[in-house]
Structure formats: structure tokens, C-alpha cells
Amino acid sequence: MRAFPAEDLASNLQDLDVGQDSPPMQRSLGLGWDLATDTLTFRVDGAEKPFTRRGVLSTINSLFDPLGFAAPFSVQGRLILRELTTETCDWDAPLPREKLEQWQRWCTSLHDLRKLKIPRACTTVPLSTTQRKEICIFCDASTKAIAAVAYLRVTDAAGHSEVGFLFGKTKLAPKPDITIPRLELCAAVLAVELAEVMSAELDIQVGDIKLFSDSKVVLGYIFNDSRRFYIYVHNRVQRIRRSTNKSQWNYVPSDVNPADHATRAIPANQLAASSWLSGPAFLVDKQHCHLKQEAFSLVEPATDVELRPEVVTCATNLSFQLGSKRFEQFSSLRPLTRAIARLCHIAYSFTRVAKEGPCHSWHNRKLLFSPDQLHHARIRILLVVQRQVYSEEIHCLQKGDQVPKQCSLSKLCPFIDSEGLLRVGGRLKRSQLTAEEGQPIIMPGKHHVTSLLIRHYHEQVCHQGRHLTEGTLRSAGFWIVGRRRSVSSLIYNCVTCRRLRGREEEQIMADLPADRLSTDPPFTFVGLNVFGPWCVTSRRTRGGLANSKRWAIIFTCMSMHAIHIDVIESMDSSSFINALRRFFAVRGPVKQLRSDCGTNFVGACRELGISSKGCNNKDVCNYLCMAVQPSPLFTHGRKLGEDDRCHTSDP
What we know:
The chain is α/β, with parallel strands linked by helices and 651 residues long. It has 19 helices and 20 strands.
């Protein structure tokens, strides 16, 4: 100090004894600079201001904080001022009671700002000795305010890191209220503006700039490359993407985000202990010095109102060739021919000649197609198939060369006619045959259009055999390569032909009952039934002949199929009982009788006391020695006693 002339020293330093006296307070950047401790302090005006809107505005403007050290505290005062300005009252009118209490608490906390001491240097490590310098910017938003704060992170040669406060800024949230994602996006824009200011104003070489946000919705907007936004979000995302890269953005939890203090407002006595001035602890931690790069996706895009509706567009590759792949959608030749004829008609409607007529542009043709139009469409179909299957052979013939001998068409001497179709050659040009019969069109045997041709002419001959179908194809002027196999395959798969020529199905018979397989003597197990009637002459009268009806009852052996036929005069129970007595007299007793539920059989059983469970009459049982059962229709399809009634052999 003695080296400088006295007139060059400041007035408060001319009589200063550096060794004994403490240096006075100086001013720097609008703040107080304590030279003894090399710290910055705030100068707060202690004069009482009136409790009016004018006094509130004067008190808030008296706090000069260009670097944003006290931004988390001053934002509360600005919020009170904005609430007061929304009310229609005089500037010198007293404050309302509820606002007066808030303002008094803020003014009381303002005096605590004098105790805040901020180190003038960002870091204790000289910047010239550091190995790496980074700028870390944090942003956050709430319904009250949006904020962003920047820190300088330096790392020395030993790997130790320090973090120093650079700049902080807050803005009141816009009115009317907007959504939280939009506020967070505005905070991200504020962080980008701080990054641009730091890059332009700092005269040190910074290695990297990292930006942090605690909103994954905003990070999804920044990383998005597939969806479009509405104008508000779109403009701000474009502003962010124009100045920063996606790799610079990182996620930070809300509880360690220092910008969160400025969005919620804290008292002045808590500023020194908060992370607003010192920065988050994880920036100094060695384990978190290298942040992992993470890609963020949109959060619930289906319900996000900021996203435009996703529009799906289909790209169509146009081909100058029709291609036979589309022909497989048709199962009959006639619809295919009509579809191609309609397509050719529409294509012709766009020509200059057609525009002068009644048919032009796209339209629905209601008239029937002429035979010439259908023939032209059929030629187009055959040309497409031949160009696809026999492209190499057609190319050789167009150059004037012969078809290679290893080709399957070499023995047919093929040539191209005036319509461009590939036909069979030979020595029949001077014959009286038509051009279609003498020089038929060559078609591949395994193509879908060939199957449609074979099915078309097979239906024309009313589903006749292979020879007639092949003859009809040859008469129509088609030479199908491997036609025998193709025609046989189609006839084999034809539903109508399989129904007409298929063999009758045989049902698997059930097992025979035990009485059909017994080795007992004949007529041990008997099935019986009645058939008829016949008209017979019973007697002669004076006027002519008297006719009567007669029936026959047939007894069939269940095991040997031997039969016994007896004549009965009526269908009553007594006639049946007499026939049964005659049968036992001739054939002997039986073990079992089977019959249906005819009225004469049921009446006879009732009269004789016989049921399906056995004989209740002992005299009849001793005489008959039998069991009676109704005759079921077996699943093997044969009801004995009915199928044998046509036999007339002698009992």
C-alpha cells in the first residue's frame, strides 16, 4: 500500500495501517466485499418502508442480487408483489391483513440476509492446476416459479473434485396456470439459456456442459425422435435441441436437485445450509463422477395431451408390371377375366382419346363387357403368366436364338405369335386345323392360372374324366406342360367328382350277441316275425269266389339262420298261440324267443302270463321251456326274423 501514492488510494484507505487495522468493506458487483475474509455479503437497507404496494416494490428492488445468490429467498417477495398487483387498489393503500402478515415475515427474514457470507472464489483449487472443468446446470419448476442454477465442477490431478456456485436465476410461473410438464419444459429452456451465457462469458476452457432435470416427461420430449408435438411444446423442444445435444441431458431425483429450493422459496437463514450455494453432494462423490448415459422414452404417450395423434401412412411401391401374384386371389377364371377387363378399361379411360368419350377417369362400369374386351383381358392374363415363368425362353426367341436344349420347351419348337404369346411350333401350319388347335398356347402346369383354366373346362364337360377334360383343353388351344398330372390332380381334388365317384362308406359292425354264436341244436334260440297279408280264395259262392286274407309267421334260428314258416288266418293273439303250438310240435322246445312289440305278440304274452323277465305260469313254463324277449335292432344292422321272411324253404 505504501508503494502507491496517497492521492491514488481510496479515501478510506489513505490512513489505513495494513498491519494493525482491518480493511474496510468494499463493493463488488453490487455486493459487499469483506477483504479480511474474502467473502461477499448483502447490504440490506434498514429503513422502514410503508406497508403499501409502493413500499413493497421499493423494498424488493432494493435487494440487488445479480448472480442469484439469494434467488430462493427473493422469489417469495416477488410472488407477494404479483399477488398484490392483481388486485385493483391504490398503490399507497394499506395492504390487506392476510398479505400484510406474509410481507412482515418476509421483511423479518430479509434482515437475516446480512449474516450470509459467500466465498468470492468459486473453488479453493486454482483453476490453472485442475485437470478437468465442467459446468453442471440444474433446473426445476413448480406452480410458483421456475429456476435454473449453474455450478463449476473442477477435478485436480489427484482426482479430488470441488463444486462452486456460478449463477442462479428464477422466474415466476406464467399466468394463467399451465401444466407441470410445460413448466418443467420452460425450466429446461431457462437452463439452456444459462448454458449459453456461461459459455460466452467465462474466459476459461470448459470441457463439458451437463444439464440435469428431475422430470422424465421433459427428458422424454427431448429424446423423442418419432412423435410430433403441438406448437407450445414443439417450439421449446426445438429451442433446447438447437443449443444442446441429447447426450448432455441427465436425470436427477427431486430430493437432491438444488433448483428445487428456488421453486419452493426458503427463508434467508436457511440459504447457507441448503444445497443452492454448495451444489449437490453427488457431484463431489467419486462413485458418481461418471454418469451413465441413459435414453429416455415418452411417458405414457397414449394419454399425453401434448402429443399429436399418430398418423400411420402406408407406402406403396408401384410396379410397371401387373404380376401374377394377384391372380391367386381368384378361385375362378371368369371373375379373373372380368376383373382384368375392368382394369384395362379404367386404364384406357385415362388416355387422351378416352377423355373425349363418355368414359373417363375413375368410374363404375355398369355395362357388360364385349367379347373382344374379354378376349383382350384373357390375352393379358396369359402374357403375364408366360412372361413370369418362361422369361428366359422368350428373351432367347426375341433375340432370334433357339431355345436351349436343356429347356423343357425345346422339343415343342416354340415361337412368339403376333400377340406376343408363346405357342407350340411344328409342321401343321398348312393343315385345315384352326390356329388354336394346330399351334396351341403353352402354359406351365404348376401355375395358379393353369389350374383355373383346367377347372373352367372341366366344369364345361360336366365333370367328366381326364381324357375328356384334356381334349377340351386341346380344342380350346392350350398346351399344358405336364397336363396329365395337372388334370389328374385337379380331378382328384374336385369336390363334385369325389362325391360322384367316391365309394360308399361302410360302418363298423358291433359284436354279435351270445345267442347268435351258440352251438346248440337248431331253433334253440329263435327270432320270429309276421309278414303279409295275401288274398286267397277261401270258398266258392253262387256269386263267385270268397276271398280272405292270410299272413305268415316266420321262425328263424338265431345261430344257423334256418327258417320255419307257418300260415295264420288273422293277426290276433289266438292265431299266434296256435302257430306257436304247431312250431313247438314240429321243432321242439326252445330256450329263448325274440320278437318285436306287435299287438298279437304282446296280447299272447299277456294271455299266457309271459313277460320279458320270465314266465309266471308254471304249467305254460313246463310246456314251453322258454324265455321270451323283445327283438332289438342290433347295431350290426340285421334284425333276424324280418330279413329272412323272403325265404320259402320247407320247415
